[in-house]
Design goal:
This protein has 923 residues and is α+β, with helices and mostly antiparallel strands. The protein contains 19 helices and 45 strands. A hairpin with a 2-residue loop joins β41 (792-801) and β42. The radius of gyration is 30 Å and the shape is globular. Bound molecules: beta-D-glucopyranose (BGC). Beta-D-glucopyranose binds next to α3.
Length: 923
C-alpha cells in the first residue's frame, strides 16, 4: 500500500473553497497533498465536476497549482461540486472531499435590480437607510443576495445582519470597477414579506479622501444595488431587485467619515420613509471579488485605563491597530454625550494627534437614556493604540474593546528567532500589514491619507506575500492599477487614483506596475496574472524609456527618490543621499528586465528579446554614466550601491567586488545605523550579504541605536513606523509632516529575514522549488520560518550550539528544495518530507594580528570593547560619532586609531584611550 493522502485545500483561482460568487466561469484549480511516499511524484490528476451529473476529467500532468478548468464553462449562479484525486507511481489517491464553487453574476444582464438613491441626501446629511420589501413564495430551498453600493453599506434582512463583511463593497477605482458581494441568505428568508434594509455610509465614495481636502471624489449620491434571488423546491428562481418601490429614511448616524469618525444620536428613530431615485448607473462595471473581504479579524481587550496629566481618561489597548473601539455604557441620561478620540502614540502623556493631520478620528454618541448600551461606529475606522474617552463616569476596562478591522487574508508566513527584539520587530511588520491591508494596500491607516501608494506596496509586496495570502487581494488591486494607468503608460502615484496628477511618473512608485505582478508570479506561480498585466507592465516601461530618451538615462523631472532616507532633514524628505537620477535609471533597467522575463513566461519570445535588449542597453548606459571602473556608483550612497549590486548594473566582477566593499565601508562608517529610505531598505541586507558581508548585514539588522529597524522596538513600538525615528529618543514626535506610526514600507526587510535569516525562499515560481540558504550567524542561536506555499507547508529551522548547526527543512509534496547544507560545496536537492542535517559551525575567528581599523570594526567583540573605552574616556559620545570619524582611516593600522579619531589632540583622555587600545591589541 502506498502512502498517498487524498488532495485537500481545494482552491478556485485565489479563493479557498467553498467559494460563493466567483467572478469567472472557468476557475483554475489548485490543491495540496499532505503526505506521500518519498518517491511519489504526480503524473496525472482527475477532476470530477458535478453540476447535476458528475463528469470526470483525466489529465496527464504533474501540475497541481492553478491548473486549467477542465470542464465546460459555468454560467452565472451555477454551482458545482468539485473533487480531485491524483496519481503517482501507478496508484490513485482517494478523492478529495467535494468542494463547492458557485459563480456570481457574470454579465450586466444578470441584474434586474437598479441602483436606488435617497433624495435630498447630500454630503453632510445623516446616513440613509434604504429599504425594500420582497414578497417571497413558499418552499424556498436557496436564497442569495447580490449587493453593492455607492458608499459603504451594512445590510439587514428581516432585522438580521447579513454576512460579516465590514466596509463593503470595499474600495476600487469605482469609475472602472465596482465589486458586488454575494451572500447566502437561505436561513434569513421566509415565505411572505421580507424586508431588506441597508445602512449606507459615505465611505471612500463620497467621504474625504487624501490630504488635499477632497470629498465626493466618485460622486455626491449614495446608492444601493440589491438583488435577492430565491430558488424554490420546484427549481424556479424568483428575483427581487432594488427599484422605485424602495424607500429611504434617515438613520441615527448624523455624520460618518473614514477620516473624521462617526457621530450617532441614539435618541433618533428613523424618519418617515420617502421615495428613492433610480439611478442610471453602468452595471457593466460590476465585478466579483478576487480575494477575501474586510472583516473583524480580532478583538483586543483594553490593557489599562489611566488619567493623563491634563486629567483626560486614556485607554491603552497595548497594540497599535486599525479598527474601532466598542464601548458599553450604562447609567447616563438622555442627551449625554460620549466622545472617543484616537491616536497611535502619547506625547507628554496626552494623545499625540498631530500626526493625524486633519483627520479628526473622533467617534461620538448622544445617549438615549440610562439603559446599558454598546456603542460602535461601523461606518468608519481609525489607526490607534490609545483612545481618550469623555462623557462616561465610572468607566471600566471590561467595558471597552478594540475591534480589529482589515482584509481577512489567511496567514501564511511565520518567523521566529532567538532574538527577542527581532521577533517583536517581525510581529510589528505583521501588525503593520494587518492595519494597512484594508481592501487597498495603503501607506498608513490613520491620517488624512490612507491611500494606495504604489511605491509602498512595490517594496513591501515580497514581505506581504510571505506573511499572508495576498494573491487575490493584489490581483484585484492590479486590475485597478491597469484601469487607471494613463494612456501614455504613466502610473498614478496612488491606486485608486485620487490625486489625479497628469502624466505621473516616478521611479520605484510606477514600478509597482511591473514588480508587484512579478512578485505574485514568483510566489504563487500565477502566469495568468502576468499575461493579464503584461500590457500594463510594458506600457510603464515604455513610458520610462520615453522619458529617458535616446541616451537611455532617465534624468531630471519629478522623483520621490529614496524617500525618507534617514539622513534627509525631517522637513525635506526629497533630499535623500541617493541621486534620484541614478535610482530612476536603475529602475528602468530592472523593470525592462522584468517585462522580458514576463514575456518569456507568457511565451512571447519576440517581446522577451526586445525588452531584454532594452534592459541590456540601459544597463550599459547606466554603467557608462554613473559608475567608475573602480566600482564607485554615483552618488556614493548606500541605496545606489544596493540597487547597482542587486540589479546587475555593474558589468565586471571586479567592479561588483569593489562596489560591495565600498557599500560595506559606508555601512561601517555609518556606525551600522541604517542610511536607506524606502527604495534602498528592501535591498541593502541582500546587497551586503551577497557581496560577502553577511555579518555586517546582521549588525545593521540588529542595531538598536537610532536610526535602525530595532530602534523603534526599543521605544515600545508595536507596528513599523514611517520613519526610523517617527518618535525621537526623547519621546517627542518627529517634527516632520510625514510621521505615521504604522507604515509598512520600512518593514520590507522582513522578506530578507524570511529568505536569508531563516533561509526559506521561493526558487521556481510558486515554490515549485524552494531555496534554503540560511545565513548562520554568531548573532543568533536559532531562527526559523514557515510558509504555506501553494503546495502546502514549507519550513526551515536552524539552531546553533556548541559549535554545531542543526538544520531542519520541510518540503511539501509537489515541491523540491535546494539546500545549502553547511560544509557542502554544492546545494543538496531533496524532495518532499522533513530532512535534517548537523554540521560544524566555524565560530568567529580571532582578531588578526596587527589589524587595520576595518578589521577591528569587523571583529565585533573587540570593537565593542574599544567603543566602550572611547565613550568612557569621553573621546566620543557614542559609537555613531566614532564611526563617522573613521571615514578616512579604515585602512590605517588599528594601533593608530586614537590619533585619527582624537585628531591628534594628545589630551589625557586620548592617552588613556590609547592605553586601552594597546591592551586590547596586545590580547
Ligand atoms: C506617503 C508615502 C508615500 C509618499 C510618496 C507619503 O505621504 O505616506 O508612504 O509613498 O507620500 O513619497
Amino acid at each position: 500500500m502506498s502512502n498517498l493522502a487524498a488532495p485537500t485545500s481545494l482552491r478556485f483561482e485565489h479563493r479557498a473553497a467553498p467559494v460563493l460568487g466567483l467572478g469567472t466561469a472557468t476557475p483554475r484549480l489548485s490543491w495540496q497533498v499532505a503526505a506521500a511516499d518519498a518517491d511519489y511524484a504526480q503524473t496525472a490528476y482527475e477532476v470530477e465536476i458535478t453540476t447535476g451529473t458528475a463528469q470526470v476529467y483525466t489529465v496527464q500532468s504533474p501540475e497541481q497549482v492553478l491548473v486549467p478548468w477542465p470542464g465546460d464553462p459555468l454560467t452565472s449562479r451555477e454551482s458545482a461540486q468539485v473533487r480531485v484525486r491524483v496519481r503517482g507511481n501507478g496508484d490513485w489517491s482517494d478523492w478529495s472531499r467535494p468542494a463547492t464553487v458557485e459563480v456570481g453574476l457574470l454579465g450586466s444582464d444578470d441584474w434586474t435590480a437598479r441602483f436606488v438613491s435617497p433624495r435630498d441626501n447630500s454630503h453632510g446629511s445623516p446616513a440613509p437607510l434604504l429599504a425594500g420589501v420582497a414578497d417571497l413564495p413558499d418552499g424556498i430551498v436557496k436564497a442569495r443576495l447580490y449587493a453593492t453600493a455607492h458608499g459603504v453599506y451594512l445590510p439587514e434582512l428581516n432585522g438580521e445582519r447579513v454576512g460579516d463583511e465590514e466596509l463593503a463593497p470595499g474600495w476600487t477605482a469605482y469609475q472602472y470597477r465596482l465589486r458586488y458581494q454575494t451572500y447566502d441568505v437561505t436561513s434569513l428568508v421566509r415565505p411572505g414579506e421580507n424586508r431588506l434594509e441597508f445602512l449606507v455610509g459615505n465611505g471612500w465614495y463620497r467621504g474625504r479622501l487624501g490630504f488635499q481636502d477632497q470629498k465626493e471624489v466618485y460622486g455626491n449620491r449614495l446608492a444601493v444595488l440589491a438583488q435577492l434571488e430565491v430558488t424554490t423546491a420546484d427549481g424556479q428562481v424568483h428575483t427581487f431587485g432594488s427599484d422605485d418601490t424602495w424607500t429611504s429614511r434617515e438613520s441615527a448616524v448624523l455624520a460618518d467619515d473614514l477620516y473624521d469618525g462617526q457621530r450617532t444620536d441614539l435618541r433618533r428613530t428613523p424618519g418617515e420613509p420617502t421615495s428613492v431615485d433610480v439611478l442610471d448607473a453602468d452595471l457593466g462595471l460590476l465585478v466579483a471579488p478576487d480575494g477575501p473581504p474586510v472583516r473583524i479579524t480580532d478583538v483586543l481587550p483594553a490593557v489599562e485605563i489611566s488619567a493623563s496629566p491634563s486629567g483626560k481618561t486614556l485607554i491603552d489597548f497595548g497594540q497599535n491597530l486599525v479598527g474601532r473601539v466598542r464601548l458599553t455604557v450604562r447609567g447616563g441620561a438622555a442627551g449625554d454625550e460620549v466622545v472617543l478620540r484616537h491616536a497611535e502614540v502619547l506625547e507628554h502623556g496626552e494623545l499625540g494627534v498631530r500626526p493625524l493631520r486633519t483627520a479628526k478620528a473622533t467617534d461620538s454618541y448622544i445617549l438615549a437614556g440610562s439603559d446599558e448600551v454598546t456603542l460602535d461606529s461601523p461606518l468608519t475606522f481609525h489607526g490607534f493604540r490609545y483612545a481618550e474617552v469623555t462623557g462616561v463616569s465610572d468607566l471600566r476596562k471590561e467595558d471597552l474593546e478594540a475591534i480589529v478591522v482589515g482584509s481577512d487574508l489567511p496567514r501564511t508566513g511565520w518567523f521566529d528567532s532567538s532574538h527577542a527584539l527581532l521577533n517583536r520587530f517581525h510581529e510589528n511588520v505583521v501588525w503593520g500589514m494587518r492595519g494597512n491591508f484594508v481592501d487597498v494596500p495603503t501607506d498608513c491607516p490613520q491620517r488624512d491619507e490612507r491611500l494606495g501608494w504604489t511605491g509602498d506596496i512595490q517594496v513591501f509586496s515580497p514581505t506581504a506575500s510571505f506573511l499572508f495570502d495576498t494573491a487575490g487581494f493584489l490581483t484585484n488591486w492590479l486590475a485597478d492599477l491597469s484601469a487607471e494607468q494613463q494612456k501614455d503608460g504613466s502610473v498614478p502615484f496612488v491606486v485608486p487614483d485620487v490625486l489625479k496628477n497628469s502624466a505621473p511618473a516616478t521611479a520605484a512608485w510606477g514600478d509597482a506596475a511591473t514588480i508587484v505582478p512579478w512578485v505574485i508570479y514568483e510566489r504563487t506561480g500565477d502566469a495568468g496574472l502576468l499575461a493579464r498585466q503584461l500590457p500594463s507592465m510594458r506600457a510603464w516601461v515604455d513610458k520610462m524609456a520615453d522619458l529617458a530618451g535616446d541616451d537611455l538615462l532617465w534624468s531630471g523631472g519629478f522623483q520621490f527618490g529614496d524617500w525618507l532616507d534617514p539622513t534627509a532633514p525631517p522637513e525635506n524628505p526629497f533630499r535623500a543621499k541617493a541621486d534620484p537620477d541614478v535610482l530612476a535609471t536603475a529602475h528602468l533597467a530592472r523593470s525592462a528586465e522584468v517585462v522580458a522575463k514576463a514575456a518569456e513566461v507568457v511565451g512571447d519570445a519576440d517581446l522577451a528579446r526586445e525588452y531584454a535588449d532594452l534592459a541590456a542597453r540601459v544597463r550599459q548606459a547606466f554603467a557608462a554614466e554613473y559608475t567608475t571602473e573602480g566600482g564607485r556608483v554615483l552618488s556614493d550612497a548606500t541605496t545606489n550601491y544596493a540597487l547597482a549590486l542587486q540589479w546587475a548594473l555593474l558589468p565586471t566582477e571586479s567592479q561588483r567586488e569593489r562596489a560591495g566593499k565600498r557599500l560595506a565601508d559606508l555601512v561601517r562608517t555609518a556606525g551600522f545605523r541604517i542610511s536607506t529610505g524606502f527604495v534602498g531598505t528592501p535591498l541593502i541586507a541582500d546587497a551586503l550579504a551577497d557581496s560577502g558581508h553577511p555579518d555586517l548585514a546582521y549588525r545593521l539588522l540588529l542595531q538598536t541605536a537610532c536610526p535602525s529597524w530595532l530602534y523603534s522596538v526599543t521605544m515600545g513600538a508595536t507596528t513599523v513606523w514611517e520613519r526610523y525615528d517617527s518618535m525621537l529618543p526623547d519621546g517627542s514626535i518627529n517634527p516632520g509632516q510625514m510621521t505615521s506610526f504604522n507604515h509598512y514600507a520600512l518593514g520590507a526587510v522582513a522578506d530578507w529575514m524570511h529568505r536569508r535569516v531563516a533561509g526559506l525562499a521561493a526558487g521556481d515560481p510558486g515554490y515549485r522549488t524552494i531555496v534554503v540558504q540560511p545565513l548562520f550567524t554568531s548573532h543568533l542561536t536559532a531562527a526559523s520560518a514557515k510558509h504555506i506555499t501553494p503546495y502546502g507547508e514549507a519550513a526551515v529551522a536552524w539552531t546553533r550550539s556548541d559549535g554545531e548547526i542543526r538544520l531542519s527543512v520541510t518540503v511539501p509534496v509537489g515541491s523540491r528544495a535546494q539546500v545549502a547544507v553547511p560544509g557542502e560545496s554544492e546545494p543538496v536537492e531533496v524532495g518532499h518530507g522533513t530532512h535534517e542535517w548537523t554540521a560544524t559551525y566555524a565560530e568567529t575567528p580571532a582578531l588578526p594580528a596587527e589589524p587595520t581599523v576595518r578589521q577591528l570594526i569587523d571583529h565585533e567583540s573587540s570593537w565593542d570593547t574599544f567603543v566602550a573605552a572611547a565613550v568612557e574616556t569621553e573621546v566620543v559620545a557614542d559609537d555613531g560619532e566614532l564611526a563617522a570619524r573613521l571615514e578616512r582611516y579604515l585602512d590605517l593600522p588599528a594601533s593608530q586609531l586614537v590619533d585619527a579619531i582624537s585628531r591628534r589632540d594628545f589630551s589625557p583622555a586620548a592617552q588613556a584611550l590609547q592605553a586601552k587600545l594597546d591592551a586590547l591589541l596586545d590580547n
